[in-house]
């Protein structure tokens, strides 16, 4: 991919001076249009060999463009805070909002290249990271972003000449250190690794552009023209981003589904509930004080029908925790700031660090539930969201997070009963709104969306737990017990390759015995016993 950047590209001084005024004016116009339009963000990745002019080019763009609508993010070795979260966390936080240009000096490509050069990862592992990057960039483009990837190239001889020239000039000598000369020894390996990575990440939606970095004027003019043409084309396009997706086809021949199979009559008496609550809250507190948990984190995702009892269940979890250890994130309609970013951005920003717990009261599944049913996004958007959500949760799990997801299911009759009760209780009236009554009319559409959600996103690393929630006592104990079993399984059985273990039974903890009216705990596993405990 580097041949076209080794032919001695050069622009003379007169041609450069003649071209710059018009280019600057056009860039500023496009930048203002971008800001006023506020429909797309522009993400510019600047990578390449040392001495190829990355820093100088960024400075030129700041000179030519309006710095108010431009931001530069420089990434080097991860900080302690960043190392305690998934590798992509720091890049998600740095994404520019719609209407702005974000320049990344160093990016999500830097670390995989370094790791491969230093033999920390195999070629197979590099390819796996490249696949993850491709999916990430496809998601950004699917959300409307313009992603420009620039690689500044120098031949080995050109790099030596460039470093010597920088070192000789008193104004730039500080840029060249012994580290740069040491890095020159890995030039051939960098070419192999970068060439391979660029090839397999050179996608239709985010292609690489390799630019010869020998001549400053050629490089600056080329980058300016690439950025201008890409912005103008994107702004002129009236087509919505619509990646091809297969239509969703559902056939329930016998009418039985994961939701209809739930036994909503499951019940737990008050005395048994109090005993079980004390037991499982105590067990959860012990598990999260376990020294092994300091190298992990816990992400709890709660979804459910309106009035299904999510808030009450969450309070029973937090009742067992130190307030300094957890954060509860209530999710409502996105704010203006959040609407200016990809839909997953507002959840990435709350990913917990190691040793901490984050509980989401409603989640990223809004894209395939409320946004799907209410038509807040296109069919193509929510169809591709299943894979994007699976990728998100995979990244969390791969970094050591324990992801536990609950869907609380109640019947329509029980929901109506709770709605009316809320209207009668002064301190609960705020919980019932006209929106709740309106959503109730779309019960069947939401139930269909839930079934698709469970089937497409219940994975080995982040399975769904469906909770029979007509009886609040039963639901709360099932949630606590499931949470304890998942955390204990993860702490006891983390695989040798670093991947989280599959959930297993809690053999040490005492399980509540079943009541006469409680002959099974979960219709998805009829062998399980009731959550009731004497």
Report what the structure shows.
The protein has 534 residues and is α/β, with parallel strands linked by helices. 46% of the residues lie in helices and 12% in strands. The protein contains 20 helices and 10 strands. The protein has helices at residues 13-37, 54-64, 80-83, 89-93, 110-117, 123-142, 156-168, 178-184, 187-200, 216-236, 270-289, 310-318, 336-339, 345-348, 370-374, 379-398, 412-424, 434-440, 443-457, 472-493; strands at residues 42-48, 70-74, 101-105, 146-153, 208-212, 297-304, 326-330, 357-361, 401-409, 464-468. A 5-stranded parallel β-sheet has the order 2-3-1-4-5, with helices on both faces. The chain has a 5-stranded parallel β-sheet with strand order 7-8-6-9-10, sandwiched between helices. Helix 1 packs parallel to helix 10, helix 6 packs antiparallel against helix 16 and helix 12 (310-318) crosses helix 20 (472-493). The longest helix has 25 residues, at 13-37. The protein is elongated and about 85 Å long. Residues 494-534 have low confidence and may be disordered.
- Category from helices, strands and their pairing: alpha/beta
Shape: elongated
DSSP summary, beta strand count:
10
- The radius of gyration is 27 Å
Q: Main beta sheet: strand number and arrangement?
A: 5 strands, parallel
Give the fraction of residues assigned to helices: 40-55%
Low-confidence stretches: 494-534
Mean pLDDT across the residues is: 87
């Amino acid at each position: 991919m580097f041949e076209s950047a080794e032919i001695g590209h050069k622009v003379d001084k007169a041609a450069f001076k003649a071209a710059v005024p018009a280019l600057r004016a056009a860039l500023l116009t496009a930048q203002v249009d971008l800001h006023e339009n506020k429909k797309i963000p522009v993400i510019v990745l600047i990578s390449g060999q040392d001495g190829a002019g990355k820093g100088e080019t960024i400075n030129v763009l700041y000179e030519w463009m309006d710095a108010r609508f431009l931001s530069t993010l420089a990434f080097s070795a991860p900080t302690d805070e960043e190392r305690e979260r998934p590798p992509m966390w720091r890049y998600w936080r740095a994404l520019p909002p719609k209407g702005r240009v974000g320049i990344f000096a160093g990016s999500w490509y830097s670390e995989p290249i370094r790791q491969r050069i230093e033999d920390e990862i195999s070629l197979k592992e590099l390819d796996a990271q490249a696949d993850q990057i491709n999916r990430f960039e496809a998601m950004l483009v699917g959300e409307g972003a313009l992603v420009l990837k620039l690689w500044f190239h120098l031949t080995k001889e050109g790099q030596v000449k460039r470093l010597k020239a920088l070192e000789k000039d008193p104004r730039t000598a500080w840029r060249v250190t012994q580290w740069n000369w040491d890095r020159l020894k890995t030039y051939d390996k960098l070419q192999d690794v970068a060439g391979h990575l660029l090839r397999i990440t050179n996608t239709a939606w985010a292609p690489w552009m390799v630019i010869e970095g020998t001549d400053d004027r050629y490089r600056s003019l080329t980058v300016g023209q690439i950025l201008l043409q890409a912005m103008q084309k994107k702004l002129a396009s009236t087509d919505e981003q619509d990646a091809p997706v297969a239509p969703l086809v559902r056939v329930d021949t016998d009418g039985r589904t994961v939701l209809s199979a739930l036994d909503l009559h499951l019940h737990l008496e008050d005395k048994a509930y109090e005993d079980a609550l004390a037991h499982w809250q105590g067990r959860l507190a012990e598990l999260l004080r376990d020294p092994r948990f300091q190298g992990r984190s816990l992400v709890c995702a709660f979804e459910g029908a309106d009035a299904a009892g999510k808030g009450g269940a969450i309070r029973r979890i937090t009742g067992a925790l130190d307030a300094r250890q957890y954060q509860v994130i209530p999710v409502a309609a996105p704010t203006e700031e959040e609407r200016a970013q990809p839909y997953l951005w507002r959840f990435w920003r709350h990913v917990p660090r190691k040793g901490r717990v984050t509980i989401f009261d409603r989640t990223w599944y809004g894209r395939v539930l409320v946004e799907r049913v209410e038509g807040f996004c296109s069919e193509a958007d929510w169809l591709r969201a299943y894979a994007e959500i699976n990728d998100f949760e995979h990244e969390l799990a791969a970094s050591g997070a324990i992801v536990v997801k609950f869907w609380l299911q109640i019947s329509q009759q029980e929901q109506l009963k709770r709605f009316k009760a809320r209207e009668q209780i002064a301190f609960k009236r705020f919980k019932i709104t006209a929106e709740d009554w309106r959503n109730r009319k779309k019960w069947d559409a939401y139930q269909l969306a839930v079934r698709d959600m469970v089937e497409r996103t219940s994975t080995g690393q982040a399975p769904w737990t469906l909770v029979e929630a007509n009886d609040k006592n039963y639901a709360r104990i099932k949630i606590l017990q499931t949470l304890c079993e998942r955390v204990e399984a993860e702490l006891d059985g983390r695989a040798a390759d670093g991947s989280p273990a599959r959930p297993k039974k809690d053999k040490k903890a005492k399980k509540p015995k079943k009541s006469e009216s409680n002959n099974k705990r979960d219709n998805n596993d009829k062998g399980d016993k009731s959550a009731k405990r004497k």
